[in-house]
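SAMPLE LOG
Freezer: B-3
Tube label: C17
Construct: single chain, 65 aa
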Amino acid sequence: MSATSKCMLIYNLVCCCLWTVILFTSLQYVFNKEKYPITTFWSNYKNIITITQSLAIFEIFFTII
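STRUCTURE (predicted):
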């Protein structure tokens, strides 16, 4: 396995883990809207959502290349 393949594997694993966290976080908000208003929800999870969106941009870029 070449170094590029290993790096892409690690990158894809990290992306999958982050997307899974975002999925469960979003489901938590959907099922508990009354307990978690959007203002507190966004401030608590803003960083992880932003990081995941940034990784999605890189994922599109790597797919094009």
